[in-house]
Specification:
The structure holds 2 protein chains of 2 kinds. Chain A contains 13 helices and no strands. Chain A is mostly helical. In chain B, the strands form 5 sheets. In chain B, strands 11, 12, 13, 14, 15, 16, 17 and 18 form an 8-stranded mixed sheet that branches. The N and C termini of chain B lie far apart (72 Å). The chains are: A mainly alpha, B alpha+beta.
Chain lengths: 316, 564
């Protein structure tokens, strides 16, 4: 297992490096840079001033030269400064990262809390009214775009219940009630999308397991149904579901951009969106690296957990 | 024990027939609900295109409660207002940003709230004009900047000169001050402006938030001449906190010169927080519940809220307008017959209906913010109310384009209504054989670098306090396209008309001259003026006393508003 973990960690390095190369060069393929955006806004900026600004921001020179400069700085922990506010990328991203993680974790746990009982009941009561309801809701949650759900939720809650989430963000330590009031709705919407997929996977996996001979054997031995389900069936059904959960956790963190925009959550996703529009390259590069790194490490954690849950798997 | 136990759920298995029956019933129920729900009258427009409304002010005015002091309000601002608080900064090119720093900085003069423009003294207590080119401002004594220093004439001179600085950036609106020859402090509290020529509306210039804000010379220089993230003016609000992309928090200044109804200085509220909200439905929902007390609204959203008893709507023309600049140096746009044909073939009412829902045709100078200078819809040439396709076709034939012609426009992305307008114009001009191709510019695309391709560019013109600014900057041959040598327009007769009107000191004569200018611009189609759209503001009943302003200056309204 140790060898496996070390190998995976070593493999993570070229993966993250590859992501860095991709994001760096793909940004430079986009038309225009931050100076172009500023020039559009300021008719009075002369060509000389634009070039001078480009030089001061390190945007002159060939793309590969810029990349080498940036990569070297990143390796020493310097992700650069925002072109707009002059703050460091770390200073801008750090407070927002915790907000996005909080939102992601809330959505994840809400999704799991919804999906597990519904998936289990649906599998244990196949082709019943309850099963059809669960399956229909799962498909609906997968099909309905979460930004649409978000808008509908805002409209309905405001019009019929005279409630909307607070517009200002308060840290959970400073004001837990306001913090949770602000994040609960986007977390529920993100979580239900995730729950739909998870419930379907769990149902299919559990149904598959329940058809196995060892389940028949367990029942034939006279074990209580509850013991059969919880001790034998669920543990095995959970193995592929765990992979899905891990991948979706990373997806939730990366996919919260639209929710953060709609619900005014000052998280990393919102900053990423603004930075793309403004061509604030250092911020985009920094955030994409953070997201890529989280994907890589979550996948490693899932694989390790996989090995512990399934004794048939031996990592070398 | 049986392997498969019989229970309630097993007995209630669904068959295919029962599912189909249930689905059919549910579908009929949903269809019935949709038919009932779609019969709302929410889509009624508030203005009829083609007629001339007056500025309507409040549509539904709640009875104001007595003035109350204190409290903290949260309001929405659409757009990113949290980057730049420097009154001479780059960010001032965006109206929303300019409105933000206007809370902190005030000029020599300012506007009364409400329509139309009425000037009054702000940092200047009084002024004298011994001759048409000299203005002597007597400053209010004892006015302090938010950091504590007393404002003097030296600060006023410095602030004026700051509009012309080259480093650390070039402020975008120095051209608004081109009539000023010199600004001198004659003593500690007196400033003399000498103009190059008479300029009848000069008092509106120091009131303009993008150039008139007064900063402290010593404080600004001590901060490397960069006030983007620091605020210290003489305005009604101090900058308390600015978090990029999140909020701007303003707190009441105790030393503002203007008094409220209760005899104490404005503003009434202790604290005001602006939150940038880009998603319209978020703003609407938050306004309904009172989470925010104010927001700009689209016409559709304003119509949705029209029957909400907690919301007061302020619905007025925006005060700027959309038009197309014409690259007249390029054939065939150098032929007046081609330009005029396009003008006559443009159906502005149809354009307004399809793009805006509510709006008004406009010639070069908006009639609602400058009612004397602008030409009202009913008095405009006939083709502003109804296109004249026959004459348009005959002009094109005379110009040698009987078989049609191809034209091109480049559109900046991110402005939905300009993009939609191009689509509608393409349809309309097809009727006279003009094939308009529309190219969408990606963000960062530069017209200068690309050599001004196409035959037009479209842009909204901002709101100005003087009629000259709507025409001179765009159409005088001395004005070049940015960082190029190409004049925007080149017509000696129009130059002459504008030069005369600029310096005219008799108001009635000046009004007549600007009306002539507008008619001449239309006749020669020096530019294609299209429409102005509605500017809607929604105010929750928790906020009382808010008044709209022709320049969409929310600071003027917020300073006089209180929490119910």
């Amino acid at each position: 297992m140790r060898t496996f973990v070390v190998r995976r960690l070593l493999l993570a390095i070229p993966t993250i490096l590859g992501v860095g190369v991709l994001v760096f060069f793909s940004l430079r393929l986009m038309p225009g840079d931050v100076v172009d955006v500023l020039q559009q806004q300021e008719e009075t900026m002369t060509a000389e001033q634009a070039e001078s600004l480009r030089r001061s921001l390190g945007l002159d020179g060939a793309a590969h030269e810029q990349f080498v400069r940036w990569a070297g700085a990143v390796l020493s922990g310097d992700f650069g400064n925002s072109y707009y506010t002059d703050s460091t990328v770390v200073d801008l991203v750090k407070p927002r990262l915790s907000i996005t993680i909080q939102l992601g974790l809330m959505a994840f746990f809400i999704g799991v809390a919804l999906a597990l009982p519904l998936g289990i009941i649906s599998a244990l009561r196949p082709n019943t009214v309850l099963d059809y309801i669960v399956r229909t809701l799962s498909v609906f949650s997968l099909a309905a775009p979460n930004y649409w759900l978000a808008i509908i939720a805002l409209i309905v809650l405001a019009k019929f219940f005279n409630w909307s989430p607070p517009v200002r963000y308060e840290h959970i330590v400073d004001d837990p009630v306001k913090n949770l009031s602000k994040l609960i709705l986007p977390a529920v919407i993100l979580g239900t999308g995730f729950a739909g997929a998870l419930a379907r996977y769990l149902r299919a996996s559990l149904l598959e397991v329940l058809r196995q001979d060892y389940i028949q054997t367990a029942r034939a031995k006279g074990l209580a149904e509850r013991t059969v389900i919880w001790r034998h069936a669920l543990k095995n059904a959970f193995i592929p579901v765990l992979t899905i959960m891990g991948l979706n956790l990373a997806n939730i963190v990366g996919g919260s951009v639209i929710m953060e925009q709609i619900f005014l959550v000052p998280g990393m996703g919102f900053l990423l969106l603004q930075s793309i529009f403004r061509r604030d390259f250092p911020i985009v590069q920094g955030i994409v690296l953070v997201i890529a790194t989280s994907y890589v490490f979550i996948n490693i954690a899932v694989d390790i957990a996989y090995g512990y849950i399934d004794p048939r798997i031996r990592y070398r | 024990m049986s392997i498969e136990s019989s229970n309630y759920w097993n007995r209630r298995r669904l068959t295919r027939r029962s599912v189909l029956r249930g689905a059919a019933l549910a579908g009929m129920g949903l269809a019935g609900a949709a038919l009932l729900g779609c019969s709302s009258d929410d889509d009624e427009t508030s203005g009829t295109p083609g007629t001339t409304p007056g500025p309507s002010g409040s549509v539904a005015t709640a009875v104001a409660s007595p003035v109350k002091r204190g409290g903290s309000g949260v309001v929405a601002m659409n757009g990113d207002v949290t980057r730049d608080m420097d009154p001479h900064g780059r960010g001032g090119s965006a109206q929303a940003v300019a409105n933000m720093f206007s809370h902190v900085y005030v000029g020599l003069t300012t506007w009364e709230p409400g329509y139309p423009y009425v000037i009054k003294g702000a940092m200047a207590e009084s002024w004298e004009t011994p001759d048409p080119t000299t203005y002597i401002f007597n400053l209010r004594k004892g006015v302090k900047f938010h950091h504590g220093d007393v404002m003097t004439a030296e600060d006023v001179v410095f602030s004026h000169e700051r509009n012309f600085m080259k480093e650390p950036w070039i402020p975008p609106y120095s051209s608004w001050l081109r009539m000023v020859d010199s600004v001198v402090a004659t003593d500690e509290f007196t400033v003399r402006y000498t103009l190059r020529h008479p300029f009848l509306n000069f008092l509106g210039i120091p009131a303009a938030n993008r150039i008139g804000g007064i900063v402290s010379k010593s404080f600004t220089l001590a901060n490397n001449n960069d006030m983007r993230t620091i605020g210290s003016g003489t305005g009604p609000w101090r900058l308390k906190e600015m978090v990029p992309d999140e909020r701007v928090v303003l707190e009441r200044s105790d030393s503002y010169f203007e008094m409220g109804e209760d005899g104490q200085s404005l503003p009434y509220m202790d604290e005001l927080t602006y939150v940038p909200i880009t998603e319209a439905q978020t703003a609407v929902a938050s306004l309904r519940t009172g989470e925010i007390l104010y927001s700009r609204l689209s016409t559709t959203d304003a119509n949705l809220l029209a029957n909400d008893s907690d919301i007061t709507l302020h619905r007025n023309p925006q005060g700027w307008h959309l038009g197309w600049s014409i690259y007249s140096e390029k054939p065939p746009m150098n032929d007046v017959r081609v330009r005029r044909a396009l003008n006559l073939a443009t159906d502005r009412n149809d354009l307004i209906k399809k793009v805006l829902t509510t709006g008004w045709p406009v010639m070069s100078i908006p009639w609602y913010t400058l009612p004397d200078y602008g030409i009202a819809v009913d008095d405009m040439p006939a083709h502003y109310r109804e296109p004249n396709l026959a004459e348009a076709k005959s002009l094109l034939t005379a110009a040698g384009f009987e078989g049609g012609l191809d034209l091109e426009v480049h559109q900046d992305s991110g402005r939905l209504f300009t993009e939609s307008s191009a689509e509608v114009l393409r349809e309309q001009w097809a009727a006279i054989g003009v094939n308009l191709s529309i190219t969408q510019n990606p963000p960062g695309w530069s017209a200068v670098e690309q050599g001004f391709p196409g035959h037009f560019s479209s842009a909204p013109w901002t709101s100005y306090p003087d009629p000259n600014m709507y025409v001179y900057n765009w159409l005088h041959s001395s004005q070049k396209r940015s960082t190029s040598d190409i004049p925007r327009w080149n017509d000696p007769k129009l130059d002459d008309m504008m030069d005369k009107a600029l310096i005219e000191s008799d108001e009635q004569a000046r009004i007549a001259q600007y009306r002539e200018i507008q008619l001449y611009i239309d006749e020669t189609t020096a530019q294609l003026s299209l429409y102005d759209k509605e500017y809607n503001e929604g105010v929750h009943s928790k906020l009382q006393g808010y008044t709209a302003h022709p320049q969409n200056r929310s600071d003027i309204g917020m300073t006089r508003a209180w929490l119910a």
